[in-house]
Request: fold
Amino acid sequence: MSEITEQLATTEGRDWLTMHFVLGELTEQQSAEFDAAMLNDSTLCDAVVHASRLMLGIALACESTPIFSPVPVTPPVPVSSRSRGRRMGIEVIASAVMGVMAAFVYSQFLPLSSFVPVTSLESPADVDAFVSLLPDETTGDVGADDEDFAFLEDSLTDLTAPEWLLTAVELEQDQTDANTPVDSNVY
Amino acid sequence: MVERACVQWERDLKVFLLGVLRDSHLAEDVFQKTVIQAIGSSEFVRQESLKGWLFAIALNEARQSQREKLRDAKQREKLAEQLAVEQPQRLTGVDVRWMTERGLVNPDVVDVLRVSVARLPKEMQQVIRQRIYEGRTFAEIAAEMDLPLGTVLTWMRRGLQKLREDSRLRDSWDQ
Reply:
């Protein structure tokens, strides 16, 4: 069975072959075979009529339609929501670590006696002594110690994790994921 | 009977001949020859096979005209150039005007097609437009889009299939 005969056996193949014929895409041999098929089948002539009208209609439609911008061949790399979520999680963890580190550094500047638990205060005198250790917020004067605390407060307000820390945590996470099976149900 | 049939199927015959010849002037000439030949052979036709018989005459006249054209010295040189360059035959502006002036395509169908083509995926639109309207070869389109030829042919095929399956287009064809 020739290629022409095979394609004519199905509706889709027939339509495609007919369009090829109308577009002048068939070889001389294929065209001769198609001619012979048309002489034996008047419905194939109808198909040629339909294909010609479709082709002309498309040409007329394109004539009055503005040209759109060509389709980019290389699609953008997709970023999965899972990797985005993981990135955000890493940033939160890194920020929390930075916060703990900052709190630890902050605590180093306070004397140990400031951390006397309230429950250990046995008498009003002890309470007065404890209260006297608390910073006087009403004066507003900045003493030498306050300057240190002010410096630290400025540092505490800027708790954005540095890129090297995020990268390190991410590499660690990748290594952990590589060693553990992935559970698609986990977010 | 034959004369009536020629009037009844005049549009379809002309569209058919344009599809075969891809040349509106030649299609018009061949249609005239078809009518003359049909009237001259009318005693040999049966009513039930009249349409198929007319189209067979049209096809034979079309091929005969193409052979005569090849034998013409001036056309032979021009065709040799065309064959060497392998230019695809496409509908020209003359052909489009010819068919529009003779009412061979319903303007409503063109409106529906405009919408239907716009609803196709962009890659299918691009291939269909470049092949049918701009007359580029599939190989040229594939080279420009940096894609395999098979992909371009698949997009063309699927795009045309989607157009054929468009219910609004089918309804407008039937009107």
In short: Residues 113-122, 137-157, 183-187 of chain A have pLDDT under 50 and may be disordered.
